Every structure is written in C-alpha cells, then in structure tokens.
UniProtKB/TrEMBL annotation:
Gene Ontology MF: a single term: protein transmembrane transporter activity
Matching Gene3D superfamilies: Preprotein translocase secy subunit (1.20.5.1030)
Keyword Transmembrane (UniProt): yes
GO cellular component, one term: plasma membrane
Subunit details: Component of the Sec protein translocase complex. Heterotrimer consisting of SecY, SecE and SecG subunits. The heterotrimers can form oligomers, although 1 heterotrimer is thought to be able to translocate proteins. Interacts with the ribosome. Interacts with SecDF, and other proteins may be involved. Interacts with SecA.
Domain of life assignment: Bacteria
Transmembrane segments: 12-33, 39-58, 88-107
Signal sequence interval, chain numbering: none
NCBIfam families membership: PRK05740.2-4, secE_bact
Protein name in UniProt: Protein translocase subunit SecE
Pfam short name (any one): SecE
Key word Transmembrane present: yes
Provenance organism: Marinobacter similis
Amino acid sequence: MESKAVQSTSRFDAVKWLVVFVLIAIGVVGNQYFSAESLLYRVLALVGLSIVAALVALQTDRGRRFATLLKEARVEIRKVVWPTRPELVQTTVIVVVFVLVVALLLWGMDSLISMLVAGFIG
C-alpha cells in the first residue's frame, strides 16, 4: 500500500515539475515577445512568475527536501565563528603579499625563458 502512495506522489510531483518548467518557459518567451514593453513591467512579470514557480516547486518532494536543507544550512551558519576585523585584515594582507611574490616569480621565470629562447633563435 505504501508504494502506491509513493508512486502517486511522485507521479503528481512530475506534473508539478512540468508546471514549473511551463511557467519558466512562459517567462522566457513572454520576455522576448514583449521586448518592446517597459523593462519594469517585464521584470515584475518575471518576478511574479518566478515566485509562483518556486511555490509550486516547493510543493514537491524534492522542493520540501531543498527547503529543509536551506533551514539546516541557516542553523549551521549561525554556529560559524566569524573572524574579527584585525584577523581579517591580517589574513588579507598575507594573501595579497603572497600573490604578489608568486606573480613576480612567474614574471621573472617568463622573462628568463623568453631571453633564453630569443638567444637560441636569434
């Protein structure tokens, strides 16, 4: 009995996903068709269609799992210990200096190889 309920849910989910893709297609085609209209109206229509498509997608099994994932990710982000401003500045300076040193090394090697090739060729 349980497999029939899962099958009917997944079959109905397929219809919901079809509706989502049709809404997206309507948005794309409508945006092209009404290209002479004001950009504001087209953006508002696309935002409205996107909201409706998202709401329909959230009614599917995958959509519910995605919403749960977002909620769990939000909880995990609150647990993150963010660096202080001095730590951030120090780390940024270290990265910038390292990138500059590597860039100078690569430039030097490129110049050396160019001179060797030019001397060999010419």
